[in-house]
Amino acid sequence: MSMMDKLKQMMKGHESQAGKGTDKAGDAVDDRTKGKYSGQVDTGQERLRNEFGGDQGTGQDRPPQP
């Protein structure tokens, strides 16, 4: 069993928490890098949400980022 399969099993039923964690981690990276890599961070967050679920913070209720 691959690591991704194990993570998916652990996240099953906890999609909202996974989404919150993804947002929190992305915000922390943006803070530490002063937004230098915000485009890459946003892409990574989107991919994680797609992979693990967690519809939290899909950008629909947030204004577009510069």
From TrEMBL:
Compositionally biased spans, kind Basic and acidic residues: 1-34
InterPro entries in UniProt: Antitoxin_Rv0909/MT0933
Region (Disordered): 1-66
Domain of life assignment: Bacteria
Annotated Pfam families: MT0933_antitox (PF14013)
Protein name: Kanamycin biosynthetic protein
Organism: Streptomyces chryseus
